[in-house]
Structure formats: C-alpha cells, structure tokens
Write a structure and sequence with these properties.
The protein has 130 residues and is α+β, with helices and mostly antiparallel strands. The protein has one domain. The protein is built from four helices and seven strands; from the N terminus they run αβααββαββββ. The strands form three sheets. The chain has a three-stranded antiparallel sheet with strand order 3-4-5, with no helix packed on it. The protein has a two-stranded parallel sheet with strand order 1-2. A two-stranded antiparallel ribbon has the order 6-7. It is globular. 22% of the residues are buried.
Length: 130
C-alpha cells in the first residue's frame, strides 16, 4: 500500500508492472489502482520510472487464451542501461494459433490497423479516445 516512492525514483529506479486481465484471484484493476495512486503521489518522476501493461486473456501469471510470452526483463534492461524507455513490447502465443501482438503501456491498447491479424506488425499502440 506504500505509495511514496520518491527515493526509488530519485535514484533512477525503473520498474515494469504487468497483470493478466483474466486473473481469477486478483483483479488487474487493483494493480492498476495501486499504480495510479503511486503516480498521483510521485507525479512526473513516476511516469519517467514506470510502465504498466495489461495482458488481455492472461490468468494468474500465465495460462488462458493470451499473449503471455514476452520479455519485460529485456525491456527494463534496455531502459536502465541504454535509456530506452519501453513502449510496445512484443508478445506471442502458441494457442489457439501462433500469433504475435504488441503489448502496449497503459492506457494504450493494441489497435488493429489491417493485414494479418496474427502479426504484431498489423497493430499499433493507441490511446483511448477522449
């Protein structure tokens, strides 16, 4: 419940959150609520230190009809070592059919732009209207 992370952000800390939207034990909305409360308390420093990814269809730490294979460790290493803040992270699945999709930082979502629906290149990260 602790939301004052100014020591973490002041030291250049970076953190990536993710949560499966279909998690039957813990609501992704609770994790999002915490992330937003930390943002409210820490402001711009938090936005420069953190990203949150919702994983559609993923249950608790995996399973489900989800794009649950992704490399957030590589993304945070690039951020820390090369100052390359993560945006879309490539995710993939094997069932029901092999496919890839961009995993977008909240509040953005993967928007289909045309082409092969099983190819991440057919999607772009888009912010909700309004």
């Amino acid at each position: 419940m602790w939301t004052n992370l100014n020591t973490f952000t002041a030291r250049g800390g970076k953190i990536l959150f993710y949560h499966g939207v279909s998690d039957p034990w813990f609501s992704a909305n609770d994790t999002l609520d915490y992330w937003q409360r930390v943002e409210e308390e820490n402001g711009e420093a938090w936005r420069n230190s953190s990203r949150f990814y919702m994983v559609p269809g993923m249950g608790h730490c995996g399973s489900g009809n989800a794009f649950e294979q992704f490399d957030l460790l590589g993304a945070v290493v690039d951020w820390v070592e090369h100052a390359k803040a993560p945006e879309a992270v490539l995710s993939s699945r094997t069932l029901p059919a092999p496919a890839t999709r961009p995993m977008c930082p909240w509040p953005k979502y993967a928007h289909f732009t045309g082409g092969d629906p099983n190819d991440a290149k057919s999607f772009t990260c888009r912010a909700p209207a309004g």
